Task: inverse folding
């Protein structure tokens, strides 16, 4: 009976795929979910304050995650809520909340495709921050990749040829906050388990968004309420898919699929708002993403592995 069950499991179509292909498909799901999430945020932001949207974005996954973590703790007999770095968990919560709120504000100001293209700069900022704050060493080739990524960002913004919008500026500020959050997660991962990091990030994100959300609160319509709940569900499903993809496949195999976020965002933005990124945004986004791919590849080779940040980190 057990042998036949094992054979059945192995014969299922999903299990028959290679680990890298499974990871690529999961990363595609992540890219699609996040692009749809950002499009909904942009649609809601015309009537609902970004702080209220951020509150729903964080509290919905928290309601789903806590029972899962409790069940996992019962099975493993581990206290997933205990942390040896409460101060650093708090700092991570502040940085992550700031990143999320500034990102949602960005989406209320500029097209989803343009914002997505600028979001690829997170890895560049994180790499520079790792050198100055974590004491990591980088070779010439990675510094060149960072310079190329900065050039790609300038192609998107085109300073001197057009006025840099306030939304684009906030998008870069948000990327800096997310990069700082990544660095804190790197430090936390040395002593904390993934469930602990995920729990505290979700908890602090919700707490920090709650008070401003009450201040800016407007009662949503039924349709708006469903969309608000959907933002949280899309975030949860998307980032669970991303975490699973990081576990299933090699980083160098799945990271290129992240570029499809720009494709999904462009399609959703066009269908929902009639917005579409111009040629320079596509070129700049491709340059920035190419640089992040190279940086990720070099880091994975240097470290031998890549730690997934887990749900709740990304926007």
Result:
């Amino acid at each position: 009976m057990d042998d036949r069950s094992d054979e059945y499991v192995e014969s299922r179509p999903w299990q028959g795929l290679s680990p890298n292909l499974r990871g690529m498909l999961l990363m595609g799901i992540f890219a699609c979910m996040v692009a749809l999430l950002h499009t909904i945020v942009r649609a809601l932001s015309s009537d609902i304050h970004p702080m209220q949207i951020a509150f729903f974005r964080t509290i919905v996954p928290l309601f789903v995650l806590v029972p899962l973590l409790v069940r996992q703790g019962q099975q493993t007999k581990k206290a997933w809520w205990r942390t040896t770095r409460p101060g650093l968990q708090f700092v991570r919560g502040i940085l992550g909340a700031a990143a999320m709120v500034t990102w949602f504000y960005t989406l209320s100001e500029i097209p989803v495709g343009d914002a997505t293209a600028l979001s690829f700069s997170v890895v560049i900022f994180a790499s520079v921050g790792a050198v100055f704050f974590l004491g990591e060493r980088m070779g010439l080739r990675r510094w060149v990749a960072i310079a190329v990524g900065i050039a790609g960002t300038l192609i998107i913004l085109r300073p001197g040829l057009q006025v840099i919008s306030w939304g684009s500026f906030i998008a870069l500020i948000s990327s800096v906050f997310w990069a700082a959050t990544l660095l804190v997660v790197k430090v936390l991962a040395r002593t904390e388990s993934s469930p602990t990091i995920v729990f505290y990030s979700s908890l602090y994100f919700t707490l920090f968004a709650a008070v401003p959300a009450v201040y800016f609160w407007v009662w949503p319509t039924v349709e708006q309420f469903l969309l608000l709940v959907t933002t949280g569900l899309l975030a949860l499903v998307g980032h669970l898919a991303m975490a699973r993809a990081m576990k299933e496949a090699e980083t160098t195999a799945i990271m290129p699929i992240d570029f499809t976020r720009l494709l999904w965002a462009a399609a959703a933005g066009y269908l929902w708002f009639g917005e579409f990124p111009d040629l320079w945004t596509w070129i700049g986004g491709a340059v920035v993403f190419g640089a992040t791919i190279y940086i990720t590849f070099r880091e994975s080779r240097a470290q031998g592995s890549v730690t997934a940040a887990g749900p709740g980190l990304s926007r």
Q: What stands out?
A: The chain has one domain: 23-303. Confidence is low (pLDDT under 50) at residues 1-11, 304-313.
